[in-house]
Design brief:
The chain is an all-alpha fold. It is built from 5 helices and no strands. Helix 3 packs antiparallel against helix 4 and helix 4 runs antiparallel to helix 5.
Length: 137
Amino acid sequence: MSSGAHVPVRALAIALAAASAVSMLYIGLYQSRFVERLWCPLLGDGCRAVADAPFAHPYGIPDGHIGAALYGIILALLLVPSRHRWAWVALMVLGVLATYANVKGVYDMVTLGAFCTYCVFATATAPLLLWLIWRVR
């Protein structure tokens, strides 16, 4: 394939990584109380219940910040196209980690009985992002 064929795949991966990073950053800002009230489209108070749950602060760190950092690194690696195999391997590892973390988060939300729109979005799009990363190589 020519390098031009990768542009739409990379662009979509960049868009998904950026949207997930922003979503997780918003959650993290609420968890750190930089944002006073969390707006939760579609799921009412579910976002606040999830963001304030004990599982949402592993090692005392708001998971929104962890997710934002993870997706931010993915985004940075996608923004700097590289022909080096290590960059693609790093993207794949981070994509698998993001997918795993999101699926675990949904499991925790099911246990809690509340759901977060932003977390569900990131979880729903994580497998697509992982597939796009696979295609970027």
